[in-house]
Amino acid sequence: MSEPGPGWYPDPNPAAPEDQRRYWNGKRWLDETAGPARTPSPNDAPQGLVIAGYATAVLLPIVGFFVGLALIIKNRAGHGVAVMVISVIVFLIALNAFSGPSYEDCIAGLPVEQWPTCD
Questions:
Q1: Whole-angstrom distance, CA of residue 55 vs CA of residue 64
Q2: Left (φ > 0), alpha (ψ -120 to 50) or beta: where does 102 sit?
Q3: For residue 106, what is the enclosing H or E element?
Q4: What pTM did the predictor assign?
Q5: What is the pLDDT along the chain (119 residues), one digit of tens a residue?
Q6: Residue 5's closest CA among 27, 20, 21?
Q7: What is the distance, to the nearest Å, from the Cα of residue 91 to the centroid of all Cα atoms in its chain?
Q8: Packing angle, helices 61-73 and 77-98, rounded to 10
Q9: Listed residue (65, 67, 117) closest to 90, CA to CA
C-alpha cells in the first residue's frame, strides 16, 4: 500500500478536534495543525470589480452605474448601491456644469432691448 502524498489531512490523533487537520510530509505527520478548510465565499472575491466600480462612477458615471448593477448581481449590494449613487450624483453634477443657461433664463425679466445674445 502506498502512502498518500504530502498535504493537509484530517488529524489522525483521536484526541484532536474532529475538524482539525495535520500536515503529512509524505513520510510522517508534522506538528503543524490547522483548523477546517474554509470554503471561499463570494465576498472573498478580488476587489477588482469594486475598485473599477468606484473609478468608473467618478470618471464615466454612465458606465459606473452599470458596474454598480453588476456588483449588486454578484452579491456585493453595499458597494453596488454606493457606486450607483455616486454615478448618479456625478452625472447630475456634470450635466449641470456642461449645460449653459437656457435662452429663457437669459431674457427673464429684461425688456426686449436688453435681451442678450446667449452664446
A1: 8
A2: beta
A3: helix 103-107
A4: 0.51
A5: 577 788 888 888 888 888 888 888 888 888 888 887 666 565 555 588 888 899 999 999 999 999 999 888 887 888 899 999 999 999 999 888 887 766 676 667 777 777 666 55
A6: 27
A7: 20
A8: 170
A9: 65
